Amino acid sequence: MEELGLNTFCSSYKGFTKIRFDVYGFARLLIFGRLLSPSSKCATIRQNDDYYEPVLDEHNPDNVYDTLDFICSNKDKIIRRINTSLVKKAGRSPEIIYYDVTNFYSLTNIMD
Q: Which domain of life does the protein's organism represent (predicted)?
């Protein structure tokens, strides 16, 4: 996330808003939790101490919802920041976009 510039993005917004908690840490924790052990938002925050090093030092579990509000209200800016970083650092070309159109079907002996 640091390579994508999201840490500086969160820090800059935190600097001129009323946000007093670690938005970047909460976002990281939500992403790690979704990838490693999907759970509810509150359960994901409780997993903080399960990592080798806790992602958040001090936290109020209610701030997870404030983080989601922050992400929602800044969604377009976050996507632009990620895209700009990928173009610069990974040489990504916005002219060609690949996406997955495959489907997954599961066959069973049970009739619909």
A: Bacteria
Question: What are the respective helix, strand and coil percentages of the chain, to the nearest 5?
Answer: 55, 0, 45
- Break the chain into its structural domains and give their ranges: 6-90
pLDDT tens sequence across 89-111 = 777 776 777 777 777 666 667 76
Query: Measured between alpha carbons, how far is 41 from 34 in angstroms, rounded to an integer?
Result: 9
- Nearest CA to 66 out of 102, 108, 23, 12 is that of 23
How many other C-beta atoms can be found within 10 angstroms of the C-beta atom of residue 83? 13
Rounded to 5°, angle at Cα 3 from 61 and 39: 30
Integer Cα distance of 60 and 34 in angstroms:
19
Q: Exposed (0-12), middle (13-18) or buried (19+): which is 66, by Cβ within 10 Å?
A: middle
- 45 CA to centre of own chain: 13
